Amino acid sequence: MIISSYQKSLWVRNALLVLCSIAVVAVLVKVGLCYKKVNLYKQAQAYYSSHDLIKAEELFAKADDITVLSYGDEQWNSLMHGLTATRQELESIQLQARSAISENQDAQVLETYELYQNMRKNNKQPGEQTAFFEQLSSHLGIEKEWADYYHRALQEAKDQSKENLTQQSYENETFIRTLVTIPDEYFGGAKQKQSELADLFQQYEKTKLRNLTASAPFDEVVARTAKSLRMYREIGVKADWLFTGLERFAQSEINLSIRQKDLSAFISQSIAYRKIEDVLPRDSAVLAAITRHLESRVKQAEQYIQSRQFSKAIELYQELNALMDTGALITTAEESWLVYDPTRLLEVKYPDKKFRSVRSGTARWGAQVYAFGLEESEQRLYFAAKKEDDSVAYLEVGLENVDMKSAKISISDKLGEKDAPLIMIEAAGKERPVSFTGLLPALSENVIHKRFSIEADEFSIIDSTHILIKNAVGKGEQEFASFVLDETGLVYDQKIAHIEETTTPEESGENDYPPDLPPVSQTEQNGQKPYQIAVYGGPGEEYEKIGQISSDSSIQVVTDMNGWYQIQLNGKEGWIRAPQPAP
Amino acid sequence: MRKRIGVQFRKTRKTAHTFERIQGCKRCHTYHVLWDTHCKNCGRAYTPIRQLSTTVARRHVQTRFLLLGLFVCLAILAADTVLQLALAFGIGALLFTLFFVIQKRLGSYEKDAQFIRFLTSERETIKQSLVHHLEDIGADVKAERIKDAYEKTREIGHFIESDTIKIRKIMFLNHYVLRKDMELELDTLIPKTYDKDFMEYLREVIKVQPWLVKKAVLDYVKRYKAQILLLENGEQLIGQVAGAALRMKTYIEQYQDLIIEFIDYLPRERLLRLAKMVSTNRHEGWDRLYEAVKQRVDTHYAFDPDFKGVL
């Protein structure tokens, strides 16, 4: 559609008419505002001439709010602007003060009060500004509001202090801050304020501490007093008397715990006291006493280790761990214990298992220490070793065809290498009197290799690879035969001699091993006179002697270790030295 | 020969300028050159194009006043001091006065200038309106409303100079009996080329209004004499045209040859008028014409008392 010039001219004219109308209205408004401004300005000047500065400033501010026109004398305008700024600042302070007073915000009330006082200081110079400030301050009645508030606050704070002490309730202690925020003028000066507040706080806190020590536990007394100390430090009040009182109380309580040898009480008190270190000075006597006592306890633990009372030492370290990091000390103690008693490797790892024929030692198979033993119910051998790199390896191997009741463990001194000898298990066989099993732990592979297993009448090691076997099952039957231990296991080598006559194991008496019974019975059988055997608390003579048994009494061997048998004595565990076989 | 019908044509408006025939519809933005007074589309009364232009010119003036007003208002609004405010008011009032005086003095010239611009800008719309009228004429012809078709063609003919329009008018007019009281046209219907219908129309017009034969008609007849002579009674037609040319002395001087050639086909009363004129103006280069008239009179009207003593 083509718009005709007739219509176009109409639209343009009408659009401009609308714009022009708006512009005319705007012009009329502006003219009206200008007229109003000039009138207000003239009235303000009239009031100024009659020294009514508040009214003059009010009218000037109104005129100044009309920004459509710049009007008037610049110098006078500048002066009036200064008065307007003063009024706005004062009104703002009054507004903030009223809000803070209504919400009982002491800090904010004080802040507004200080702002006002600063303003007052700045308006000390004689002149219009000062006159205006005085007139306006009086007009607003701002000082009276503060005076009313502070007199009321002072009285309320004192009342609250008394009420807290009477009721022995110290939850609400806002009065302390309130009192500090009350300006000096309301106490009659700075010195008077300082003196009055010091007396009031000292009396209040001493009574409070006395009440607390009588009723509350140590940690609560310490925490509450520390809270008060923090508050006093925050509000800038010196409270050395409170610190002295606290130290005296803490010292007496901790000393009592030390005297009573109540380590747990000492530890909990020390923890509670150390928690408030932020409010204590560096030379706190109580902190020094705590440190001293701690050091003495650590020394005691070291003595336990020296006397091989490892469990006691570790227990003590663990208790002290709440106060100091004893992790490294515990590790050292455990290492010492392990070196002293490698069977702990098995005891710690398998606390529920009962091992027998336990052997332990050092510097074999690439281990610092090692221990191994038989678990009868599971028909297995468990092996634990602490490697050179301080890691611990736990290995096990099944002994399915071995008679566990009669099984005896030994470390071969010939078979295998010097640092890696074979573990020999000798037990009653099924087809022959004895079965021999050779095991070799390989820590690098985390496995125990079963090198051989053979039944025979007799088994005699010639050197590291040759074994003489009598009447072996399979090849070598009815022969004295030589076997070679190679990578595949035990291999028949050659016949040495033929067996002329066979003897039963019963006749030879070679299978008469006493795994559960000490050779006491043997001596009995030999017709020797019974004698007394000492029973110790552990597998060693350094352990405490806990009793004696007669060599002819019947005992139950629980397990054996390093030439010691663990036995049951009157329901307790005890250890006796394994009897030496007769030569 | 077609049978002619008697008819009374609508009177056409007499205007000083052709543009005065154009009327516009303010609402539809269309133009009309016929006799209707109200728009067929919206029913609104047509407004003469000059009046439309004047309105547009007036609005332009108003727009300029408003722009000036807006400028002055902005100046007042932007004024920041009392002095600036007073200056804005004062200069604004001065500008308004100046502008008003200038407008008073030059307004009429602006209207004419604006009219030319207006016509130029509206040329396409006017052309479309004329095309619309031509479509109406086509519809009239189909409906055999020949009278309406002629009347519309006659009005449009004021704006369109073309043989098509002329020939259409001639064809429409040849349907009717021409009378002396009709507002007939001849000069405006002369086509650029020879047209047989025009010759037929000329023959009828000469019968009722021979004074319509003017120089353009005489030139046309002279130019296409050969084709005219091929028509039935072509000589008589040229003779009638030559007789019509005897109304003015200048025509006789200019078209002597034509008159001499077709002197035998001049009617008696036209020959008598010619004889009187040549006897009066014999010594002004009319010798050849005198001889031809004398010969014609001597051979055919020697005993006619009216011719006695004329030559």
Describe the structure.
The complex is a heterodimer of chains A (583) and B (311). The termini of chain A are far apart. The model of chain A is unreliable at 502-527 (pLDDT under 50). Among the domains of chain A are: 165-320; 341-511, no CATH class; 532-577, Roll (SH3 type barrels). Chain A is of the alpha+beta class. Chain A has 17 helices and 17 strands. The radius of gyration of chain A is 50 Å and the shape is elongated. In chain A, the strands form 5 sheets. In chain A, strands 1-2-3-4 form a 4-stranded antiparallel beta sheet. A 4-stranded antiparallel beta sheet of chain A has the order 5-6-7-8, with no helix packed on it. In chain B, a hairpin with a 4-residue loop joins strand 1 and strand 2. Chain B has a 3-stranded antiparallel beta sheet. Chain B is elongated. With 311 residues, chain B is mainly alpha-helical. Chain B folds into 2 domains: 5-142, no CATH class; 185-307, no CATH class.
- Content of β-strand of chain B: under 5%
Structural class of chain B: mainly alpha
User: Largest protein interface?
Assistant: A-B, 24 and 28 residues
Helical stretch tally of chain A: 17
> Could you say how many structural domains of chain B there are in total?
2
Major sheet: arrangement of strands of chain A: 1-2-3-4
Euclidean distance between termini CA atoms of chain B: 41 Å
Q: Mean of the pLDDT scores of chain B?
A: 89
Structural class of chain A: alpha+beta
Strand content of chain A: 15-25%
Q: Which assembly state applies to the chains in this document?
A: heterodimer
Could you describe the largest sheet of chain A, including whether it forms a barrel? 4 strands, antiparallel
Shape of chain B: elongated
Low-confidence stretches of chain A: 502-527
Radius of gyration of chain B: 31 Å
